Amino acid sequence: MEITELQKDLAATFRWTARLNMHEAVANHFSACVPGSTDFYVNKAGIHFSQIKASDLILITKENIEELRNKPEVVDSTALNIHGTIHEKAPHAKCIFHLHSKYATVLSTLKDPTLKPIDQNTMFFYNRVAVYDDFGGLGFEEESIKMASALGNKQHMILANHGIITTGETVAEGFNSLYYFEKAAETYITALSTNKNLNIVSHEVAEKTCEEAANYPVDTAKQFLSQIRLILDKEEPEYVN
């Protein structure tokens, strides 16, 4: 079967996540729906992010999902549940990125995990992040249903005591949000660590900045992924295989 650009894009994001040291052993998972379909690609179980190739992405369909539930050595059970349920119940989430990255996870452990608008990156997510604050264990069936309900119509979600989920219409959009959310969380957690008063901007300024970023005149997310692939094409060309 021919490898698609969607698979290559998604494979590139795994490789880049490993370069950024945002991965966790062979855990965590990204997924992307086939355009015009609810079928989605997700990473094969047990492969380090730095080693994932386009051909390591498993296509999940209505026809094979039940069979794969009994094959956790092929697709991680929590990946099937979290991504399958959210793709089904939140159709705006065409691409889903789930990590336990350092700063997003630290944020998720706070009693109030709201990302306060203190710089441009934190403002990019102003009022755009749901909070799932009812942690009930690993993301198996019941937990994943609660996650999908908590996401609602928001694009992203902090999983309290767990990590982060970002979504997008495209791989580029979803990964760009993942990257910037971690940067925003790093700034916020670092600012909190000073024990000084935070200079939190007004609702009006935060909302205006968020809207301006969302309507930026060029697609910077697409540019970012294009540059990632350009670097990987030179340094790790096997990712497209």
Report what the structure shows.
With 241 residues, this protein is of the alpha+beta class. It has nine helices and seven strands; from the N terminus they run H-E-E-E-H-H-E-H-H-E-H-E-E-H-H-H. A seven-stranded mixed β-sheet has the order 3-2-1-4-7-6-5, with helices on both faces. Strand 6 and strand 7 form a beta hairpin. It starts with a helix and ends in a 6-residue tail after the last helix.
Question: Which geometry do the CA atoms define?
Answer: globular
Number of DSSP strand runs: 7
Please report which band the strand proportion falls in: under 5%, 5-15%, 15-25%, 25-35%, 35-45% or over 45%.
5-15%
What is the quaternary state of this protein? single chain
Q: Extract low-pLDDT stretches.
A: none
Mean pLDDT: 95
- Which class do the helix and strand fractions yield? alpha+beta
Percent range of helical residues: 40-55%
Most strands sheet: 7 strands, mixed
- The first-to-last residue Cα distance is 12 Å
Q: In which order are the strands of the major sheet placed?
A: 3-2-1-4-7-6-5
Q: If you compute it from the alpha carbons, what radius of gyration comes out, rounded to the nearest whole angstrom?
A: 17 Å
Order of SSEs: HEEEHHEHHEHEEHHH
DSSP summary: helix tally: 9
